[in-house]
Amino acid sequence: MRDATPTASHYVDGAYLEDAEGAAIEVIYPATGARIATVHSASGQVVEAALAAATRAQPAWAALPGVERGRVLRRAADILRARNRELSELETLDTGKPLSETLVADATSAADALEYFGGLAAAITGEHIPLADGDFVYTRREALGVCVGIGAWNYPTQIAAWKAAPALACGNTMVFKPSETTPLCALKLAEILTEAGAPPGVFNVVNGLGDVGAALVADGRVAKVSLTGSVPTGRKVYAAAAQGMKHATMELGGKSPLVIFDDADLESAISAAINGNFYSTGQICSNGTRVFVQSGIKEAFLERLAERTANATLGDPLDEATTLGPMVSAAQLEIVLDYVARGRAEGARLVTGGARVEREGFWIEPTVFADVTDDMTIAREEIFGPVMTVLDFETEDEALARANATEYGLAAGVFTADLTRAHRMAAGFEAGTTWINTYNLTPVEAPFGGSKMSGVGRENSAAAIAHWSELKSVYVSLNPTEAPF
Ligand code: NDP
């Protein structure tokens, strides 16, 4: 293993913590299937130690001036950027995503979040509300307390930082549980936050299976839960949070539409379809997996798409020339292959790909289906792999109605040269995150999150502050208090 590999299974109270009592979790490099590390699922003792540390640390952390909390976050951002290469290599080993991606999308994205919320920390303030006769109300934006973050396996560093940065900026402390599939990267974030000056207990990481997440969510000391994961897990975690009336943010799955009109810049639209289906081997929640193409340009679109898809370079993810990595796990590969089989069986036309790549690890060809109809399984269910479905449409009204005909509402995109149509579509999409003439760009400055079954709450941007803090109002009277008797 590389030098950057974390030295223990958990990070609690400012230090690595090992406890071999819990079940062993083998960490597999998806490109080869080789075991690269073993961590242990957190025992009850480890969960208790993490929650106790976060509870102890929270009042003093919240009492620091925002500018001091922000300084810690901004120092952590600098460290992440300085170590980007080694952290990117670790992310590649943890997830299988190619280094050409991880060098620009993971530790760097985490650094952006820490820098942004580090800068915002001193600007988290209340307001003054004048009333009659000189009375007034002022509001205080206060920390929630101990928060729990639970992550999926596709962006282990980014997910941890997108939750930790705003949480810590607001004066909360956090216990974070990574996905059991990718347990390594969040530990590095914890180590770096300590190095940047975060007091012990402010950010803790406990690894483990879903039951560890469930134990965290159920604990009475926890004020807020933020999950990135699938809809079925979201339902469970949201329901468990409701039992304790906890705040909750749910960043869940999607089946997002990308609508391409015949006046669009074709090469840009194809780039967006490629990025929105094959980046991270299709393992991105906001992917535009239902690509609606206006019928007049359909064949030209498919021909050029197939040509460009053939240029994907599958290979050693640690080689920067590689542009497409493996699936994260053998289980996820099987799920995706099963969807490909269903696409064929239900009559979709396979334009390219569709086969497992015969090499060690969990590889599949980038796959495009055309002539897909709205009722096919591959057009309705989230696949979470490199499988693009192309659907034809004739009119704008039809495209919008079909784009919205899904229980999900995470994201949506439109490509057109018609300015008014672009904004009509953006307004009409039932989705939390939308793009015009681009796809899947998620800068920290922009709110990110879903509508409908894709979740509640927003991450990133100043909007996230409202989800990681609570408003207290303070009424101040300058007048005598009267009573009826
Ligand atoms: P899961 O929903 O299976 O798991 C997400 C996390 O929740 C994991 O850490 C998991 O632990 C944990 N967990 C599972 N059961 C419980 C429970 N009962 N209580 C508390 N925690 C629990 O998602 P995957 O990791 O398989 O990730 C893929 C899914 O995530 C996709 O469907 C995708 O759409 C979604 N996703 C959404 C994103 C968004 O921002 N909207 C971004 C990325 C992914 P363990 O892994 O140990 O089972």
Automatic annotation (TrEMBL):
Residues 20-474 form the Aldehyde dehydrogenase domain. The keyword Transit peptide does not apply. Gene3D superfamilies: Aldehyde Dehydrogenase, Chain A, domain 1 (3.40.605.10), Aldehyde Dehydrogenase, Chain A, domain 2 (3.40.309.10). Its EC number is 1.2.1.8. It comes from the Bacteria. It holds the Pfam family Aldedh. The keyword Zinc does not apply. Coiled coil: none annotated. SUPFAM superfamilies: ALDH-like. The active site is at E251. One of its GO terms (molecular function) is betaine-aldehyde dehydrogenase (NAD+) activity. Keywords: Metal-binding, NAD, Oxidation, Oxidoreductase, Potassium. GO terms for biological process: glycine betaine biosynthetic process from choline. Belongs to the aldehyde dehydrogenase family. This is Betaine-aldehyde dehydrogenase. The lineage of its organism: Bacteria, Pseudomonadati, Pseudomonadota, Alphaproteobacteria, Rhodobacterales.
